[in-house]
Amino acid sequence: MTELPLIGEAIAVAADAAGARRLAGAKIGVITFPGTLDDRDAARAVRLAGATPVELWHADTTLGDVDAVVIPGGFSYGDYLRAGAIARFAPLMSKIIDAANSDARLPVLGICNGFQILTESHLLPGSMVKNDHLKFMCRDQVLCVENNTTAWTRDYAAGQEITVPLKNQDGQYIADEKTLDALESEGRVVFRYVGFNPNGSRRDIAGISNPAGNVVGLMPHPEHAVEAGFGPEIGSGTEGLGFFTSVLNKIVGDNK
Amino acid sequence: MTETSTGRTAGTATETKKFNIDTVANAAKTPDVDLPWAELGLKQNEFDEVVKVLGRRPTGAELAMYSVMWSEHCSYKSSKNHLRQFGDKVTDEMKKDMLVGIGENAGVTNLGDGWAVTFKIESHNSPSFVEPYQGAATGIGGIVRDIISMGARPVAVMDPLRFGAIDHPDTARVMHGAVAGIGGYGNSLGLPNIGGEMVFDSVYQGNPLVNALAVGVMRHEDIRLANASGKGNKVVLFGARTGGDGIGGASVLASESFDDTKPSKRPAVQVGDPFAEKVLIECCLELFKGSLVEGIQDLGAAGISCATSELASNGDGGMEVELTSVLLRDPTLTPGEILMSESQERMMAVVTPENVAAFEAVMDKWAVEYSWLGEVTDTGRLIITWEGEVIVDVDPRTVAHDGPVYDRPYARPEWQDAVQADAFTGSVQDAGRPSAPADLAAAITELVASPNMCDKSWITNQYDRYVGGNTALAFPDDAGVVRVDEETGLGVALATDANGRYTYLDPYHGAQLALAEAYRNVATSGAVPMAVSDCLNFGSPEDPDVMWQLAEAIRGLSDACMVLGIPVTGGNVSLYNQTGSVPIHPSPVVAVLGKFDDVARRTPSGWKEDGQAIYLLGTTAAELDGSEWSNMRGHLGGLPPKVDLAAERALGEILINASRDGMVDSAHDLSEGGLAAALVESSLRYGTGARIALQDVLDRDGVDLFTALFSETQGRALVAVPRSEEIRFTDMCTARGFPHLRIGVVDAEGGTLEITGVETMNLDALREAHEATLPKYFG
Lengths: 256, 779
Fold this sequence. Notes:
The complex is a heterodimer of chains A (256) and B (779). Chain A has helices spanning 9-14, 17-25, 39-49, 91-101, 113-120, 177-185, 241-254; strands at 27-32, 52-57, 68-71, 108-111, 127-129, 137-145, 161-168, 172-174, 189-193, 205-209, 215-218. Chain A has a single domain, classed as 3-Layer(aba) Sandwich (Rossmann fold). In chain A, helix 3 crosses helix 7. Chain A is built from seven helices and eleven strands. Helices cover 36% and strands 22% of the residues of chain B. With 779 residues, chain B is an alpha+beta fold. Chain B has 28 helices and 28 strands. The chains are: A alpha/beta (256), B alpha+beta (779).
């Protein structure tokens, strides 16, 4: 079983009441599009990590004062046309794109359909196509954390293996060779599938980041591995919580 | 895309075409017009009854309404007289937690702490044969809308499936389509699929059974009913537009046997849009939260005919609707077609004038189309107009509730005695029954690789079991378990079961065995069984043999519910599942819902911890008739295992207490495949083997090793008990007088399943055999 180097800094911060307030004061937005499915799950993960989830609606025109944003999984607009292709035009997406690219480098995590929306938005390179076996697949998936310096992975060890659920139909990550080489050389391959490539993704890539490391997208679902007994049966079942404590620690650390 | 499809179009009437509209006035003047009542599925006596009820011939639109609402599928005309037993045989114990009983879209059961749960199982068999993907997909869509209509948030689905022989060329078509359809639709709704069944049998070749169950939860104050009350309240139709799909689905497809001589019925299958349904779910929940609807009804079978007549007859009894206000996908539809269309993802609601603006705001937020059709009246009449001209003027009760009821003749089939006399033991197929250690090991491997006992993850891996974050158990465990309240851990467990082979041998007891198994599965997971929903899949009620099977199954089920103390709160009847004159095995699929005070106490079906004691609860008799072993040898005859409902209840209480008090770490019920299947499944669940010795069982029960392994005696379960709990556990069994024997220990290191008298089986080899079957046939 992989030990999760949990929370670390955040626990230290939370040791006193003022610290706990500071954690809970961190606001992480979870955006809902028509057809979004895992929004309440992402909000639960944010809450379990100690932060305060904020509901965001795709048609909103301001981001408010959120410290980070999660774009959760699902089938926004039914995946009609192409997964994520319609959602990227939502009014709130343009705000998120601006904030992610601004000097403030708003941390953004795209999970599954959220990852697809991030590539459609050009915040991340490449694209997702149908799984190579052409079927929807739901399984407990082992991932290797290749880069633990992003906003969403700093609570993991480099090379750490974690198990989180994977569930998608269009999960095959593709990009041209030049882009893939660049991602590799810049350390922007954040997660790789271990043991089994569930969808034919190029170079076993499960997740990537932008150059600054504030925008991360991946196909597997860390928000479904945050509570023992309701996640994967392999490992502790809570090995996805590190995503949310990572960003929380970053927010709290940055605001010190 | 959303910008163009908002409610801005609401209220603008569909551009009407100049049909030669058959008005009520016209009908009164032209009594002798020939009407296509036979083509619409009505019988002569039924048409005569419509004329009698109306005092004139029906208009074309009225005929369309009566024909769908009086169909077998909608009116339960062949089964109604028998189904009454579910309402009549009810004890105070059964009523204790029932908040809404049979008759509404779905029954509602009290969970405590202000929570309520609603669940229902339905069939979508015929459409799934004609067009497996859309048939199975819209089966999910329909049952989910039933759950929303009660005011609940849907939280999980399950799919019991029965297909033809695994090696028949057509089975792959149905399998791929239905599984992809269930996944494609259910996964897109964000509902975890937590269990179900998969049975292969050639009797289902031309009539696969695709049943769908949905469960939803709500606060007590959110319970909604389908009725239209309050004169002047507005009637609104919202969701998808009305198209030409599914016209006659209920009357023609679901209420007739397939027949090669008729044209393809593909157009009668509805086409699903899961995205529209997901948006509809969220939009309805927001309506409920704001208390913006007085009554609500989903549009399923019989579409607008059903929704208007049911809402009106359950309320103050009157409604006026302008049919040209219905938003259409296909502008060429006639009034009758609009009334009959089974286009998916539509709902009808009744809204007070004060709430109209707030209702429209919710529609606009979710970009859902809607149109105001009319209002509630107190006239006792359902009046439907087309550009102001009256085309329907009926008492809605006569459409929705007073359809024909048949006392179909039934009799015990002449062949039943011969079938029951043909026991497996000693039959030709029983020759060469294995007894040597190597042969028994080979037999066990063959059993767990057989189509019905093999690993089903080829199917279940195509379903999302995680979404929602509340799934505490899913396949392959005995029951699916979902948390309802995150604060307290309050939750529900669900299991569905049926055994068509048992029910063929003895319909009364076969139906009871389905209930007993579902009850046992729920209790095995640690939940307290509370309520039942059933999907009664049978052949043609016009065949007295089939009608007898149906009558016996209903009598058996309702009797058993009384003994187990849990009520039937809803369900559905699917008849005419036959090809030519050959019906399917009678297949009453029974779903049992149970309750957990805290789902953290759930018991999985596999053992993990080395050295834990394995106990077999219950006794074993020589009961191989109808078993999976006899099925593998091509035999079906004799009598199914004995039903002992008192023993089931006692076993259930032991399993529930053991779970609540932490006395067992795993529990698995014994059913199809008997002890052999249970031992392998409990070992493979977490890849942890066991050392088993059955001599005490053989001595006590007077059976041989083969029988101990393969018999399907009921009322048994396999549990793993931590050493520290053994005395407490055995004391409890002893105090309750329930037979229990320690048959072995968990062996975490060996990687094998050792059974004394059976050649040692390597878990990797067992797993390979268990998992290879479905990929071999379906890729």
